[in-house]
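Protocol step 4 of 6: structure prediction from sequence.
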Amino acid sequence: MTTFDELVEEGARAPVEGWDFAWFAGRATEERPPWGYARLIGRRMAGAAAGLDVQTGGGEVLATIPTPPPVLAATESWPPNVALARQRLAPLGGVVHEVADDAALPFPDGTFDLAVSRHPTLTVWDEIARVLRPGGAYLSQQIGNGTMRELTVAMMGPVPVGTARDTGRAVAAAEAAGLTVVDLREVALRAEFFDIGAVVHFLRKVIWTVPGFTVEAYRDQLRDLHERIRAEGSFVALSRRFLIEAVKR
């Protein structure tokens, strides 16, 4: 049987670049939202003249679109992901720009008729509206309030649920930027961890779950959770997502 220290070491060594979660196969699972984000953007990009993926990560999702538009661009802030995205999106003709998540987008007004974003750290709604053409759409799958709260509490103890990712705030911000929200859906999804190595890797990769996480700082909590997983077979948390589509007036 693999020991606690060995599992933690595996999770601590696993690479965190990009948003490919293949490493978790057999070690953790997460339900997928029912709307099928990758299929949605695949259909929408096929009908677009100019498309933009904001905070593309390593380009993993955008690279799955079957038919790219004539103009395809993406932004990403983390240099290791920028390099991965450029490799993945080059066959589609995609141009990747290194841009801070909270910075102005490096495109002229009205450049795109479709902008998409999967799990942005934040959405700069005024910039989204600026680079969209009139009638253009922004389609985004976002992380909802309280996502993976059970894991946060297991590591940090009781903490208040934030409101930064409230859907009402997203709608209000979109409307204030000159967009009309035409679709809004929410869902809670079951996530299950089968060993503590998967927990360590997840916390290193999805850094907002436990801000400032390191193995050294949280070793006692990790050991407690390891014993719980061994006793109960897994650790379950809820991953919260919402889909929002907004059209430029």
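Step 5 (inspection) to follow. The helical segments are 4-13, 37-46, 79-89, 125-131, 149-156, 167-176, 196-205, 219-232.
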